Amino acid sequence: MERIDTLSSLEFFRPEIVLVLSLMWVLIWDLILKNRPRERRAVLVGSTLLGLVIALGFAFAGTDAPSMGLFSNMVALDGFGNVLRILFIVTAIFVLLFTLHSNELKSVHHGELLVLLLTATVALIWMANSINLLMIYLALETVSVASYVMVGYLKSDRLSNEASLKYILFGAVSTGTMLFGLSLLFGLTGSLDLYGIRSALASQEVVASSGPALMVVIVLVLAGIGFKMATVPFHFWCPDVYTGAPTPVTAFLSVGPKVAGFAVLVRFFYGGLSEPIGSANWAMVGSVDWQTILMVVSVLTMTLGNVAALTQTNVKRLLAYSSIAHAGYIMMGAAVLSGEGIQAMIAYMIVYLFMNLGAFLVVIVVHNEVGSFDVKDYAGIWRRAPMLTVVMGVFLFSLMGIPPFAGFLAKWYIFAAVIKAGLGWFAVVGVANSAIGAYYYLKILRTMFIDGDDTPEPTKPMPLQPVYAGLLFVLVVPNIIGLLLWGYLDQVAEYSKRLLDVVL
Amino acid sequence: MISLESYLVVAAALFSLGLYGILTRKNAVNVLMSIELIFNSANINLIAFSRYVTGDTEGQVFALFVIVIAACEAAVALAIIMSLYRILKGVELTDASALKG
Amino acid sequence: MEAIAPKIIFWVFAGLMLGSAFVVVHGRHLVRSAFALLATFFSVAGFYAMLGADFLAGVQLLVYVGGILTLILFGVMLTNRIYNLELETATFQVVPGALVALTVFGCLVAIIYNTPWSKAALVEEGPTTPAIGRLLMTEYVLPFEVASVLLLVALLGAAMLVRRRTDL
What we know:
heterotrimer, B: mainly alpha, Helix Hairpins, elongated, C: mainly alpha, Four Helix Bundle (Hemerythrin (Met), subunit A), about 0% strand
């Protein structure tokens, strides 16, 4: 595993450099065009989109580089990181397009939101690629600060402000606690580099005597990472923040930071607290059985998410609990310590992007017309917008995990990896949870089909912006033809299990 | 010579006090101050380890970045508190209770 | 005599730190807690100086006392009915909260004394600023740049949230 210094690392850093330049460009033009609102909006949105697309191009082009540690082992360049980099930029492009016609964001100026979105995207990429404790912490905090401001973006809306206050206070507590754990880990091993930590923990003297300390470190670090992934017991912020934030921001939060949290989980535990055996398997290092901890957290998370979603009446709150449950499923893939587990996680996260963003886009479209996020106000939408209902049905069936949609295949991938690792009971819990989950997704769909008693204009067709119609198409198609794209997804997942230390 | 453990114990005490503050305080600014205590306790750990365990300045660099991060978070937290205060000021209700749980 | 002086200074700073921290977390008046926090930050800077981190002690005073604490005090003064700004989340009563904190403290102390920390040979005392500067420009360049992005976004976000006109 090579590590290279600063100047030679820059050529592999093109997407990040493009994103940082874009955010500065947008910021400057926001000020220059202060008095010309119409041109300003076009220029800013256009620049952001262009920057994201160029970065995406560079990210695709950079996928054939060999694995190495960049910037003196601060960040990694490997298959895992490359796939996630593309995923984050794609998420940002979708969310950017979501903000264009959202009623919630109509009355506020978008300039800063675009800068925050770009910053959050580049920080997510850094977060998913960091292999040094300092870099992990710094990138995590950058994502967090950008998110706190995005959640509170609607300054005159009380819910938005409250959500952002809750988010920052919970968030700062959990990252502060994580920092304390990281400081103890530094003291135990004398190193801030994850691979240095691994060699220190693998040496015999440290292993024998540091069990309790390592346990404390793991609990504290899981506090911070678990907050970002919204797993139990650090999920409390999730429903309130998702409900209060403007919906495009909620959509971003449900994918971006969550996936990045899982990336940090994998890098920290597989890179720092395990050592590789064989070509893509890992064994724990140190005397704490954290694999069991991860399994327990996964079970608690999916169960709580599914059960709590059953009684929700606000669709954003329901989707928040649904995303908590999905975090539980993704964590199953992390707990098996194998290459198949990582592949399953990545495949699930890619599919999750398409189904979750799709569901949130439908929520945005319905809110634009109906003005409400209550499930009961979704009554009778079938008559006003039949195509929209069908599309939402696809997203919900995919989230449920019903064949032949992509969501089913993603779950299949995860359960297969778990069974292959010999943890059959774990897969059974996952299947049972999916069954529970079906109920609340079906409830939304059923409400959409049945007419409400007091719907004001039951047959007036619902207008749909062309941009949104295009986005819905782009998001729904992969869900439907998931089976056909399976080979391609498999290749991507195979490529992504190359963490820095995996020699294939 | 002061032992490493003495410094660590004081840092642990500071951490616990911060934790106590977070659990029992209802006012947002008080919670923010308790969070700053936690950041400081982690920094003491880092700098003590940097001196006793590694002998070089790596831990101090980490502590430097932590100070920067804490400053950013405090600024944004206070901005959010200000923004929320402005909204609640004109309203009868005094609690940020619209979002429960 | 020589060995006693460092210990006395240590205990003075530690006592000041923990005493003022107790006022921060338990005091009833917000302004009093804020000033107690000032004393805490000062004694932490004292600890840094005792540990040989001269640069960091200076930064602690500049940033924490001169920046963060001033910000908190401004925030407290400008929103003078801020005692109304309470979160309605579940908070502990004092006694259970104290029990949890004491348990955590007990666990941490047990771990601190039972872990054999590897002690390196102590490096000679001296100014740490050149060493930190060298690290920031060589190995830690990327975090340095990321921190500048973080500062930009924090500045932007805080300014945006606080300004009055919503149409800008």
